Every structure is written in structure tokens, then in C-alpha cells.
Amino acid sequence: MSNWNFWSILVFIIAILIISPVLAIFYSAFSGNTELWPHLFSTVLPKYTINTFILMFGVGSLSLFFGVSTAWIITRYDFPIKTYLEWALLLPAAIPAYIIAYTYTDILEYAGPIQGLLRDFFGWKNAKDYWFPNIRSMGGAIFVMSSVLYPYIFLMARASFISTPLSYYHTSMLHGKNVFFNVALPLARPSIVAGLALVLMETISDFGTVDYFAIETLTLGVFNVWLGMNSLSGASQISSVLFLIVVILLTLELIARKRQKYYEKSSGQNISSPAKANGIFALTCLVTCLIPLFLGFVIPVAVLLKFVVNGYAIIDLFNIIYITLTSVSLAVCSSIIVMIISILMIVVSAYNSNNLHKILIFLSSCGYAFPGIILAVGIVVFVGWLNDIIYFHINYFSGGIIILIFSYSIRFLAVGNGAIKSGVTKIHLNLIDSSRIMGFNFFRIITRIVMPLIYTNILVGGILVFVDILKELPMTLLLRPFNFETLATYVYQYASDEMLEESSLAALMIVIAGIGPVILLNSMIKRSGKTKEKESFLF
To answer: What CATH code would you report for 34-309?
Structure first.
């Protein structure tokens, strides 16, 4: 394949289109009303930044505790129902954080069942008689988000613990050293840091939770400045600050990956096997694993199921069915487009020595690392450029289905690229060269050779993209057409109006859609046996 042909030019154009919205953010931030910078620095920006870092620190710390502790217990010990907990501990990842926020608010608010039970039991008359933590607070946001984000760290840490050679543990015990702190944790640190980076990026990407709890973070600030103050330039400036934070996190994650190569273990060594846990210790292991599972999955799902069973969720069944079909159709179309682009990009990158392509494809894969609200700002600015250049009607274009699919492609292309890349790298170049000698053109090579060999990767990547799109909230809220609803926006609209019961069926559908892919991801990870492949499916 020559460096420049129809397919390589097509990939070049697609990559430029995907990168452009990110560049547009900085263009708008520094070429617009620059007088806003001093105003932002003297008013809201310090508060937004401090709250963002507090949230990141809290969520990161609690997620580390849940993720590392459960990963170590699952890896090192045998106890009742451990086999089920290996995949069950991943289930909280299927639930968007904002749905967890809605359910726990319903449970823990003053009029909720918990406080009502306490008042009845102790005879308290009103809120002045006792103190109860406010769920709609920074602490509540940390608790809620940690309950659904710890699986990222759990996956990474477990992968490292499983692959640690048994001889390392034996050597540590012979020298009287603590196995966990002196061997397992240092070796797993790069993997844990990579998982932590994902947690922190998801934290700063969250909009639904911080909006519902009124936590003034940078992400919520972008939304408020853009829509509340009608200042796209101010929103771009706040987005640029978020962008810098994300770049720092990505740098830390890349450093962790490089260190991980240093700690790579030999596959020929015996891998540590779990020890039998008995009595009180076995019960402790079980309870430790059940706590995050119950907090992040069982309790929220039970609340939603109760509302559905009691009949509170059905206010307009036809409308819910219509919104579900709309969401599924949009997610299916978008995921197909994402996977087609991913196949083109990765195949061209793998079998084309042009370094420019490789750089552009790498940059186009960074969209997943950026909060959806940042990309929404960049997309609107970019569409404005197009309007000036080729006279698009920006109001129609920015509020259409096309722009939504475009935004999803930018946001989730990295997921598709990761899945396809893990498969394409296993196809030897000689097979491609032989196909060319036989007269196969590039299109036939993709459809007749590459796609059949990486069918599983295409399926996994497509499913993961589908679920991510189904859960996506901030970009959809900002870029959707008028009166256009997805399951995520439907749940958000009702829950933000304190009508969780009415949105419970739609929320439950989002959860159900996410369970299957989570279980599939776990099975793929167990079969892969390599940390790099695990990471590729997460991105």
C-alpha cells in the first residue's frame, strides 16, 4: 500500500475532522473575548477548580480503597461465592453515576425511608432533634461516584495481581516481608495508576451527578457559563482549564504504562494460586467484597425495581417505548459508524508507514479522555467555522442528529480503536502482502481478510461503544435537537424535577443494557491474560 492513496487520504480527512473540535476550544478561548479571563479568575474559576480537585481526590481515594482491596481478596483467597463475585464486582460499571445519585437521594433524603425509620424508632419529631449526613453534598458526590468507578481500578489491579509470579511471594515470605505491601502493591502500582487515571477522567467528565448535587465543578461551570450566561467564549476558557487537567492525567497514565513494561513478568513462571480462607477471615473477605457491590449496584437497582413493580414508572408507556427505540437506534447507528472508522484508521495505520497518519490517528483517539461537555463546546465552535467557510446553517446543523453522531464518534472512537487494534496487531503483515500479490485491493483485504479474523474484536468494541453512547448525558443535552429525548436525557429531566419514580423504568433499561457488555468484557479479559489487552478494551 502506498503512503498516499484514496484510503489513506480518506483516513487523513476523517482524522482532521475529529481533531478539529478540540483545536476549536483553544481558538475560541484565546481569540474571543479575552477580557473574560480576569473576570473568571477573580470570581468563579478558583471555586470551580478547587471543588474539582477535592472531588477528584475524594473519588480517587475511595475508589482506590474499594478497587485494590477487592482485587487483592479475589486474587489471593478462596471463599464462598468468590466465582460469582469476580464478575459481579464489575456490575456497578454498568450504572451511570447520575442514576446512583438519584436513587440514593430518594433513599437518604429527609422524607426518605431511612430517616423516616430512624424518626419512628427513636421518637424524633423533626430535623432539629437529630443529625443526618446530607447526601446532596461533596461527600455524597464522592460516595456516589466511587461506588460506580472503582471497577476500573479493580480490573487493572486484579490483572497485575494474577500475573505476579509465585516465586516473588515465596521470596518475600522467606525474608519476613509483607507480601502485599512489599511485593504485590509495588508491582501493581503502574496498573493501579492507569486505572486511577481513568477514574479521575471519568470524575471530571461527570455532569449529571454534580448538577443534581449542586457541586460547582469546572464541568458544571462550562454548562452554566455557556447556557446561563450565554457566553460560548467563557465556556471555552473554562474548558481549556479542564483540558490542561486531562493532559496531566494522560501524561501520568502514559508514564504508568511505560513503567509497566519494566515490570512485565515472564509467562513461563508459575503464577500465584489463591489460598483457602476459613472462618472469620472468610466472612471478612466476603463482606469486604459485598459492600461495594451492594452500594454500587444492588441497592440502586432494588430501588428502581421497586418503583417499576409498584407501578410508579408508567406514566406514558408508549412514549417510553418510543424513546427507548430512538436511543437504541441512535446508539446502533453511531456505534456502527465508529467501528467502520476504527477499522479504516487502524488498518491504514498498521499497514502504512506514513508517520503523519500514525500521529493523527493517535490524536483522534484522545476524545475519550476529554469530558463530553468540553467536546460539545468544541463541536459548536467547529460547526461555526464550517458555517463561515461553506455556509452551513449552524442552528440546523448543530441541533440535528448528524451532529450528535459526529460528537459520539469523536468521544468514543478511542474505544473502537482500542478493540480493533488489539486484533489487527495479531494479523501478520505477510498475510496482507500475500493478499496484494493475489490481486486483492484494499477494500477486499479489509472485508475478506481483516474483518473475519477480528470479528470478536469488532463485536466487543461495538457493544462497548453502544453502551457508552446509551449512557452519555452532557453532550446529548447540549447538542440534541429540540424535543429530542434519549433514555439518558429522559431520566435526567424527570429526576432533576424530583420525579425519580417516573423515570425509573428508563433508568433500569440503561442499567440492563450495560450489564451484558460488562460481563462480556470480564470474560474477554480473563481469556486474554495480558494487561495490555485489558487496557485496550477500556480505552
So the answer is: 1.10.3720.10
